[in-house]
Amino acid sequence: MTRPHVDLPMHAWRALHSGFLDWLVRVPSEISHAMMNRLGSQVSFEHFMVAIHHYQRLDVYVRLDEADEVRVGIRVPVSDGDDWLLFDLTGRDAGVDPDWLLQAGRLRIEDELQQLLGSDE
User: Fold this and answer.
1) Which of 26, 52, 72, 106 has a Cα-to-Cα distance from 86 of 20 to 30 A?
2) How far apart are the first and last CA of the chain?
3) CA-CA distance, 88 to 65, in Å (whole number)?
């Protein structure tokens, strides 16, 4: 399974990290302990980013909802079913708007086309 490529602005990553820490404090202790085990008891911003990009212990999604509002959230990948949604933020809370999402999508498509077709150098 290929993971989606997610390039968010740094302030959006910070908002997700803050949202994750808020979620971790609010959930029942057994869930919090299980998540801390999954992350090796490391919840600093740097470890949060490593858990997403290198170890894929957390998954980030970015989507438009029915009202064309950007939603950004964190899920836990699971092997035998749908990912478990931990929380999501509105684009307003994460500092991401639909214009950014469309532009980022265009850049991703251009990158993928360039990889498929090879560079014209």
Assistant:
1) 106
2) 31
3) 12
pLDDT band at 1 (very low <50, low <70, confident <90, very high): very low
For the chain, what is the radius of gyration of the CA atoms?
A: 16
Burial class from Cβ neighbours inside 10 Å (0-12, 13-18, 19+) for residue 73 reads buried
Vertex 16: Cα angle to 30 and 40 (nearest 5): 45
Task: State how beta strands 59-64 and 84-90 pair.
Answer: unpaired
Q: What are the structural domain ranges in the chain?
A: 10-116
Q: Is 16 helix (H, G, I), strand (E, B) or coil?
A: helix
| CA–CA gap between residue 44 and residue 66 (Å, rounded) | 33
Per-residue model confidence as pLDDT tens digits over 14-38: 999 999 999 999 999 999 999 999 9
